[in-house]
Amino acid sequence: MRKCTFCFARSRIGRSADTKKSRHMSLENIHKVMDFLEKTNDCQLRLLGGEPTLHPEFNRIVKEGLERNFHVHIFSNCMMPDRVVNYLKTLPDKDVSILANVSAQESDTREMKERVERTLEQLGEKITVGITVPSPQFEYKFLFDMINKYKLRRRIRVGIAQPIVGTSNEFLRPSMYREVGTAIVKMALDSYAQDILIGFDCGLTLCMFSEMEIGTLAKKSEGFTMLCDPIIDIGPELDVWNCFPLSEVLNTKLDMFKTINEITAFYNKRLRPYRDFGCMVECASCVHLKHGICKGGCLAHAINSFNKLPPRTVDAI
Ligand code: SF4
Ligand code: SF4
């Protein structure tokens, strides 16, 4: 299996908060999640891992999700088993979408690369490619070739590598954000020239860009955003956490809540104290943070700056 150096999921998936080993979510628990999402009127079933397509019942999960009228969104490295590719290929593009993290890893073997190419070739329009930026010098032009060759969606998702609280993954230091901001704007312009728009994951900051660069992104990308709202992940044993970078802290259980909104409100309240700190020392006195214009970047930086981490599990009260 591939192990990306910046991966959020690697450390967390396959482990429940009470350390019971379980790599895959059982069908029983998947049904509970679907029931919960239906109750919440959430019409999207997001499947992620690790690599979710390695779940032995993956095709059945997608089929059941579609039968319940969910749009199924899959986060994948595209090294999918053939039985999954062959099944997904039969489904309408409007019902299933795939966000493919295709950041090149030095350790990828020829066989891995060929498997990715096979998936891209077969699933074309269902796939949006994404990259995670680990440093100011990042490659992206290979994505243009991929999009053109395999007729993928003409969109690229861009995220920055965030720290995972309580672990030691590779992440982008906030001291490099300004330099990365300029590189992202260059990427937006190059993409636009290819009739491709880039869009952003959470955790960007206002001071990554000059005012002129923000103007460029407004016109030449899907739009500049600085989100940091709970994404809410649910683990195999129905543990719940705010988002992968915070997956090692403040875990709760799904059955403590009635709706996704309740979970979101819970995490907003629990994490509120960290919002005043931001990802850099400058944030504490920044007028943009005070006015709520910038959220101060990913909360994982703020939490990591404390000597004591929040508890691993908490009651949802
Ligand atoms: S809050 Fe922090 S990250 Fe945001 S603009 Fe101010 S200094 Fe930059
Ligand atoms: S803490 Fe906020 S910015 Fe960081 S990953 Fe979670 S939601 Fe995104």
Written description of the protein model:
The chain has 317 residues and is of the alpha/beta class. Helices cover 33% and strands 13% of the residues. It has one domain (27-304): TIM Barrel. The strands form two sheets. A six-stranded parallel β-sheet has the order 1-2-3-4-5-6, with helices on one face. Helix 6 runs parallel beside helix 7 (211-220). Bound molecules: iron/sulfur cluster (2 copies). One iron/sulfur cluster is lined by residues 205-207, 278-280, 282-283, 286, 288-289, 294, 296-297.
Short description:
With 317 residues, this protein is α/β, with parallel strands linked by helices. It has helices spanning 27-39, 58-67, 82-89, 110-123, 141-150, 177-193, 211-220, 260-271, 287-290, 299-304; strands at residues 44-47, 71-76, 96-101, 127-133, 155-160, 197-200, 233-234, 239-241, 252-253. The chain has one domain: Aldolase class I (TIM Barrel).
Entry keywords:
TIM Barrel, alpha/beta, binds iron/sulfur cluster, 317 residues
CATH class: Alpha Beta
Total beta-strand segments: 9
CATH superfamily: Aldolase class I
Give me the side-by-side strand order of the main sheet.
1-2-3-4-5-6
Q: What's the helix-strand series?
A: HEHEHEHEHEHEHEEEHHH
The hetero molecules present are: iron/sulfur cluster
Q: Give the helix tally.
A: 10
Major beta sheet summary: 6 strands, parallel
CATH architecture: Alpha-Beta Barrel
Content-based structural category: alpha/beta
Q: What fraction, in percent, of the residue positions are helical?
A: 25-40%
The pLDDT mean sits at: 90
Q: Which value, in Å, is the CA radius of gyration?
A: 19 Å
Detail the poorly predicted runs: 6-12, 16-20
Indicate the overall shape: globular
Return the domain count.
Answer: 1
Gap from first CA to last CA: 38 Å
> Which band does the percent of strand residues land in?
5-15%
User: CATH topology, what is it called?
Assistant: TIM Barrel
